[in-house]
Specification:
The complex is a heterodimer of chains A (389) and B (394). By secondary structure, chain A is α+β, with helices and mostly antiparallel strands. Helix content of chain A is 56%, strand content 15%. In chain A, a hairpin with a 6-residue loop joins strand 6 and strand 7. In chain A, helix 10 packs parallel to helix 13. In chain B, the strands form two sheets. In chain B, strands 1, 2, 3, 4, 5, 6, 7, 8, 9 and 10 form a ten-stranded mixed sheet that branches. A two-stranded antiparallel sheet of chain B has the order 11-12. Classes of the chains: A alpha+beta (389), B alpha+beta (394).
Chain lengths: 389, 394
C-alpha cells in the first residue's frame, strides 16, 4: 500500500468536506493571485523606473504651473560635458479625449528631438524614430486607447484637448507602445502643439514638467539638488523628484490601489490558513481511530506524520489551483482596466503571481497540517483506539 | 418550545479549535468588508452633500472640470442676461459667483509628508457664500484687503500647514504669503477639502485674467434644463451642469476603485459561506446522535433546523463583531484619513473613514446572511436525518 494510495483514499473519504474546503480555499486564492500579481507587477515597474534614471522637474507649487521652455537649456548648461545628463525632454499636458467620449487620455506633448532618448524604454526602433522625426503630427500610443478605439499603426486620429485653449488636433500613429505601465499614454510632438496654439492665438511654449534622463543614480541625486538650487528664489522655483517619488504623489490620490491590494493579499493568506487549518483539525479528529489503527498495524510515527501533512498540502495545492486557474482565465477574458494618471496597470494574473500563489499555498498547507500531523505522530495507540469520535 | 439559546451558545465551546478558526475566518472577511464599506460610505456622504439641485456650475465648453476651465471676463459678463435664476434682492442683478480654481501641492499628514497632495485653492467673492449656502465659516472669513485665506476642515486636518495663524505661500511663484485666518465647514462635502481666498487678490497672485467657473442658483420653481439651454445657447455659449451632474462625472474613478474592492470582498464573503458550511457539516456529523436524541424527546425537525441555523449565526456574529473591532483598531493604528482625486479635477478630496453604528449594522447584517446561507444545507441534512439510524451510530 503506497503513500499515494492512502492519500487518494483519504481525500475521497469525506468528499463533501474536501469539496467545501477546496472551494473555501479557492475563492480567497483567486483574490490572492490577482492581488499578488498586481503588487509584483508594480514592484517590477518601480524597479524598472529606478533603472531608467529619470528625474522630473516641475514647478514647486504645483504641476499645473507651467515653467518657461528655456529652462531646458539652463538645465543642460549645468552639465556641459554631459557626464550626468543624457537628454532633457520638456513636456506639456494636453489632456485630450476622442471627440464625444468621456475618458481623458494621458496625452502629453514632448520635445521631438529628445523624447525617444528620454523614453528609451518604450522601445522605439530606428525606423519609428525616423517616422517620429519626419512627421510633425506623429504620435506614440499605449495599448488602452488603441484597444478601446480600435486604432492601428498608421491611423489618423483626432483628439480634443480639455485644457485651454481646447484645441482639436489630428495625429498620425507612428508607434504602438506595448509596455503595460504605459498603457494609458498618448505622446506627441511639442513643436506641433506650440505651433497649433500660436495659430489659435495663444503664444505659450511653456512646459509642465521636464524629464531628464540621467546617466547614473548618483548623477540623478546631485542633479536633483543642483537644479532646485539653480532655480531657488526665482519666480519659477522647482521641485525635482525621481519617477517613483513623482508617481507616489498620485498613487495616494488614486485611492492607493497598491496599498489595498497588499492588504487584501495579507488578509487572504490569513483566511486560507484558517480554512485549511480548520479542515485539517476536523479531518484529524474524525480519523483519530483510523490513524491509531495505522500505528497499531506497524506504520511508523514518521510515516503517519507524513500522511497527515501530505494530505494537508495536497488539499491546499488543489484548492489553490482551483482558484488561481479560473481567476487567470476570467481576468484574461474580462480584463479590469484601471485608467488614471501614472502607471496604473490592468488587473491581470502574471506568471510570477501564479508562482507566488502556489508557494503561499504550499506554506499554508504545511502550517495547517503541522499541528494535526504532530498530534498524529504522538498518538497513544491504545488511548486513541478507545476514543469515540 | 424551541431549543434554549444557551444550548447553542455552549455548543460553540465544545469544539473550541474549530469554533475559534471559523470565527477568525469571519473576522478577517468582516474587517475588510467594514473597511471598504466605511470607505464607500464616507465618499458617498461627501458626494451627497454636493447634490444641490438648485446650483448650476458654468464652465468653458470643452473643459471637464473647474481646474481646466478658463472663462474670459467678457464671456462671463454675458451671464447677466440669464433669466429665471436667483437675483440679488438689493440690486436686482443676477446673483452669480465668479470663481477661480488653482492648486497648491501640500504634504499629507498621514504619511508624515512623504507624499504631496494637490489641494484646491478657490478664489471667491463674498457672493460665493450666498451661492454655496452650506459653507459655514467657523470664525472669521478672509479680509478683502489683506492676503488671507480660510481653509476647509477636512483640508486642515489632512494636509500640513493649514492651522489658524499659519502662513501658506500661494501665487504663481509661490511667493505671496497668505495667512490662514479661519476654518470652514461644508457639511463634509468636497469643498471642505479646499482653501478659499478673495478672488481679485488670488487672480493677481496667479497672474490670471480669466475665471475658472461661475456658479448660479435657480430661482424658485424654475427648470434647470431650461436655464442650461440658455447658457449653452448661441447668446452665451458656455457649458453648464447641475452640481449633481458635475460630481457624477467626477466620481468615475472612485467607482472603478469601489467596484474592484467590492468584487474582492464578495469573493471573500462567498469563501466565508463555504467555511461556515464546512464547520456546520462537521458539527452535524459529530452530533448526529445528540440531535437524534433531541428528536426522540419531542423536538421537531424544524426546531432542529432552526437551532442549527441559530448556532451558525451566533458563530458568524461573534466573528462579525470581532471583525468590526479589528477594523476599528486598524483605523486607529493606521489612521482613517484618505484623499482621492476627482476623475479630471486634478485636485484631491479628503475624507475620513468612520465606523458609524449604521456601518456596523450593515457589516453584521452581511455576517448574518453569510451564517444563514452557510448553515442551511447542513441544517437541512440534520433535519432530514433518520432518527433510528442516527441513534444507532457509534
Amino acid at each position: 500500500m503506497t503513500l499515494t494510495y492512502v492519500l487518494m483514499q483519504n481525500l475521497r473519504r469525506n468528499t463533501l468536506r474536501v469539496v467545501l474546503t477546496a472551494v473555501a480555499f479557492a475563492l480567497p486564492m483567486a483574490v490572492f493571485v490577482a492581488a499578488i500579481s498586481f503588487v509584483v507587477a508594480l514592484a517590477q515597474i518601480s524597479a524598472d523606473m529606478e533603472k531608467e534614471l529619470r528625474l522630473g522637474v516641475h514647478h514647486k507649487t504645483t504641476l499645473t504651473n507651467p515653467l518657461p521652455a528655456g529652462m531646458r537649456s539652463k538645465i543642460e548648461a549645468l552639465d556641459p560635458d554631459r557626464r550626468r545628463i543624457a537628454a532633457v525632454c520638456g513636456m506639456r499636458w494636453f489632456g485630450g479625449r476622442v471627440p464625444d467620449t468621456q475618458n481623458t487620455l494621458t496625452s502629453i506633448a514632448g520635445d521631438p528631438d529628445t523624447f525617444p532618448l528620454v523614453y528609451s524604454d518604450v522601445g522605439m526602433t530606428a525606423q519609428d524614430i525616423e517616422a517620429w522625426q519626419r512627421d510633425r503630427r506623429a504620435c506614440v500610443v499605449g495599448r488602452n486607447p488603441v484597444d478601446t478605439y480600435g486604432w492601428k499603426q498608421g491611423d489618423r486620429v483626432t483628439l480634443v484637448s480639455t485644457v485651454p485653449p481646447y484645441l482639436q488636433l489630428e495625429f498620425n500613429i507612428v508607434k504602438i507602445v506595448e509596455n503595460r505601465e504605459r498603457a494609458n499614454f498618448f505622446w506627441f510632438r511639442r513643436d506641433y502643439l506650440v505651433e497649433s496654439m500660436k495659430d489659435a492665438g495663444v503664444d505659450d511654449a511653456r512646459c509642465n514638467i521636464f524629464w531628464i534622463k540621467c546617466k547614473s543614480a548618483e548623477g540623478l541625486r546631485t542633479l536633483q539638488q543642483d537644479i532646485d538650487a539653480l532655480f531657488a528664489n526665482s519666480p519659477d522655483e522647482t521641485k525635482s523628484e525621481d519617477e517613483n517619488a513623482f508617481v507616489a504623489n498620485f498613487t495616494q490620490a488614486m485611492g492607493n490601489i497598491p496599498g489595498l491590494m497588499q492588504t487584501m493579499a495579507m488578509v487572504v493568506v490569513v483566511i486560507v490558513a484558517l480554512v485549511a487549518g480548520n479542515a485539517m483539525m476536523m479531518s484529524f479528529r474524525e480519523r483519530t481511530r483510523e490513524l491509531a489503527v495505522f500505528k497499531a498495524i506497524g506504520f511508523q510515527s514518521g510515516r503517519v506524520f507524513l500522511i497527515v501533512l501530505s494530505e494537508s498540502i495536497m488539499l491546499a495545492m488543489g484548492g489553490a489551483l482551483l482558484g488561481v486557474v479560473p481567476a487567470a482565465v476570467l481576468l484574461w477574458l474580462l480584463p479590469i482596466r484601471l485608467t488614471g494618471i501614472g502607471p496604473m496597470i490592468a488587473l491581470e494574473v502574471t506568471r510570477l503571481g501564479v508562482i507566488g500563489s502556489m508557494a503561499i499555498a504550499l506554506c499554508v498547507g504545511v502550517v495547517a497540517g503541522l499541528w494535526p500531523a504532530f498530534q498524529a505522530m504522538r498518538l497513544q495507540t491504545t488511548d486513541a483506539l478507545r476514543k469515540v469520535a | 418550545m424551541a431549543l434554549p439559546l444557551t444550548y447553542h451558545w455552549r455548543n460553540l465551546f465544545v469544539r473550541k479549535t474549530t469554533t475559534v478558526l471559523t470565527v477568525l475566518v469571519i473576522t478577517s472577511v468582516v474587517s475588510v468588508f467594514a473597511y471598504m464599506l466605511g470607505f464607500s460610505e464616507s465618499l458617498q456622504h461627501s458626494l451627497s452633500v454636493a447634490r444641490d439641485p438648485h446650483k448650476l456650475i458654468v464652465l468653458k465648453s470643452g473643459a471637464t472640470a473647474e481646474s481646466n476651465s478658463a472663462i474670459p471676463v467678457d464671456e462671463y459678463n454675458k451671464l447677466s442676461q440669464v433669466t429665471n435664476v436667483a437675483r440679488d434682492e438689493a440690486t436686482g442683478q443676477v446673483l452669480v459667483s465668479p470663481e477661480m480654481m488653482v492648486q497648491v501641492s501640500l504634504p499629507r499628514l498621514r504619511d508624515g509628508g512623504r507624499t504631496n497632495a494637490n489641494v484646491a485653492v478657490r478664489g471667491v467673492t463674498l457672493d460665493a457664500f450666498r451661492i454655496h449656502p452650506n459653507i459655514r465659516p467657523l470664525g472669521r472669513i478672509f479680509s478683502t484687503a489683506e492676503r488671507e485665506v480660510i481653509v476647509g476642515l477636512a483640508a486642515a486636518q489632512q494636509f500640513a500647514g493649514l492651522q489658524i495663524g499659519d502662513t501658506i505661500n500661494l501665487g504663481y511663484g509661490a511667493d505671496r504669503a497668505y495667512k490662514v485666518v479661519g476654518h470652514f465647514s461644508a457639511d463634509g462635502g468636497p469643498m471642505e477639502s479646499e482653501i478659499w481666498g478673495y478672488l481679485p487678490s488670488l487672480m493677481n497672485s496667479y497672474n490670471r485674467t480669466m475665471y475658472s467657473s461661475a456658479n448660479l442658483r435657480l430661482a424658485d420653481g424654475s427648470d434647470a434644463r431650461q436655464i442650461i439651454g440658455q447658457i449653452e445657447g448661441p447668446a452665451i455659449q458656455l457649458a453648464a451642469q447641475t452640481e449633481e451632474e458635475y460630481w457624477e462625472s467626477q466620481s468615475r474613478l472612485m467607482k472603478v476603485y469601489l467596484f474592484v474592492a467590492y468584487l474582492l470582498v464578495a469573493i471573500m464573503s462567498l469563501a466565508a459561506v463555504f467555511a461556515i458550511a464546512n464547520t456546520m457539516f462537521s458539527v452535524v456529523a459529530g452530533r448526529s446522535r445528540e440531535l437524534a436524541m433531541l428528536r426522540t424527546i419531542g423536538f421537531s425537525s424544524a426546531q432542529i433546523l432552526l437551532g442549527l441555523v441559530i448556532e451558525a449565526v451566533m458563530l458568524a456574529l461573534v466573528g462579525g463583531m470581532l471583525g468590526c473591532v479589528a477594523c476599528w483598531a486598524w483605523l486607529q493604528a493606521v489612521g482613517n484619513t484618505k484623499d482621492m482625486f476627482g476623475a479630471t479635477t486634478f485636485t484631491t478630496m479628503a475624507f475620513k473613514i468612520q465606523m458609524t453604528p449604521l456601518l456596523i449594522a450593515k457589516a453584521l447584517g452581511l455576517v448574518v446572511v453569510v451564517g444563514v446561507i452557510g448553515a442551511l444545507v447542513p441544517a437541512l441534512r440534520a433535519a432530514r436525518m433518520q432518527v433510528v439510524t442516527a441513534l444507532r451510530e457509534p
